[in-house]
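cron nightly-structures :: item 1 of 1
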Amino acid sequence: MSQIRTIAARLALANTLTAEKWSGKVDTKWSPPEGFFSRSAQDIANGLMRASEDYAQAMSRLNFYINRVGDNLSAADKSRLEHAKSLLEKKKPK
């Protein structure tokens, strides 16, 4: 539970820090449920595919999140999100 609070705190800090950056001004049609990006890599990849129209949109959403949080990601979180990326890559249409 403390890990979720830590991730939420990092995201809140990232939102504050990016308020003046371009990513802070982006209005998206989709907002992930609270705690979505603190799930397992498999859950993130599957959830993004379900919530997106196609592979490209799913990957864009994941990359946007990673870029928005930026340096506030711990090594473990970054590793898990990069693993989710590799799982998404496997779902890419050939």
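cron nightly-structures :: done
The chain has one domain: 2-26+33-90.
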